[in-house]
Design goal:
Chain lengths: 151, 130
């Protein structure tokens, strides 16, 4: 059996991913996470002295706290198996990446294990997040200077 | 059959319920020109306003497609109102907190000292950046 034949057999055996249903599932799970986030925002605006502009920070903190508990109990793994990108793209996916790395390397000690590896998965998010924010700010500054948009 | 179900589900998710528009000023009939200015704006479909001495808080509901330039609209309305009433200080915003706080004031029918206190509180809240 040569490589081509083997590849053919593998291709026949692997189940085909159902794109349409995956997209629907990602949409529903991602939408559900964002709806919960929006409800938490409304909760903070309604019952605490936060405005729409300032309520974002406590909302993100609360969402990450909830995900921390879900990751620790192993529930977020089940959610992300169904939701896929829908559970990875919101800030909850970032929280999950940080907490799961911390749990994984706990046995290596708190300083070199947890401290050294906590941003192993989420580090790229921070690097490219900061870089893209810099690029967007640069573009906006140029547009403001040209008089196309205002701050 | 399954496809039809999904299309129906999508329709249900994508169509939203619309709220009733609300146009209220507290205390009533104090500034009729204010209502005229707000009613003339196409982008604004609802407003709530509270007046206390020289401070006027105006919360506006901006139509969906105009929300991209919400700050600009609020700024323009503020400018227009300040030109009409130079002796008053206006705070125009489409922030949900402002809307809910004004509704609370209307519901509780606050007067004098209590009204001043809550108006000052709202003003300091909306100035906060972080």
């Amino acid at each position: 059996m040569d490589q081509k034949q083997f590849d053919k057999i593998v291709e026949r055996q692997t189940p085909k991913p159902v794109m349409f249903f995956s997209i629907i599932k990602a949409f529903l799970i991602g939408g559900a996470i964002c709806t919960i986030g929006q409800l938490i925002t409304f909760f903070y605006i309604r019952f605490f002295p936060f405005t729409e502009r300032t309520a974002a920070n406590p909302t993100v903190a609360t969402m990450i706290f909830i995900v921390m508990i879900l990751t620790g109990t192993g529930l977020y793994k089940k959610i992300s198996q169904v939701g896929g990108a829908g559970s990875a793209v919101p800030v909850t996916g970032f929280g999950n990446a940080v907490v799961s790395a911390a749990i994984e390397h706990k046995s290596e000690g708190y300083v070199l294990g947890v401290g050294g590896n906590i941003f192993k998965l989420a580090g790229s998010v921070i690097v490219f997040g900061v870089f893209s924010a810099f690029c967007v700010a640069l573009i906006k500054t140029i547009l403001v200077k040209m008089g196309v948009v205002s701050w | 059959m399954i496809k039809i179900k999904y299309i129906l589900l999508l329709l249900l998710f994508l169509t939203a319920c619309s709220n009733e528009t609300n146009q209220m000023v507290y205390p009533e009939n104090d500034l009729p020109e204010l209502e005229q200015v707000l009613k003339s704006k196409e982008a604004v479909y609802g407003y709530r306003s509270v007046m206390n001495k020289d401070d006027v808080l105006v919360s506006i509901d901006i139509r969906r497609m105009h929300q991209f330039s919400e700050n600009k609209i609020a700024k323009n309305i503020k400018k227009e109102l300040e030109e009409k009433f130079p002796d008053k200080e206006f705070l125009v915003s489409n922030d949900l907190k402002l809307k809910w706080e004004i509704e609370k004031i209307m519901k509780q029918n606050l007067k004098n000292d209590e009204l001043t206190k809550s108006v000052d509180e709202i003003k300091s809240l909306l100035k906060e950046e972080t």
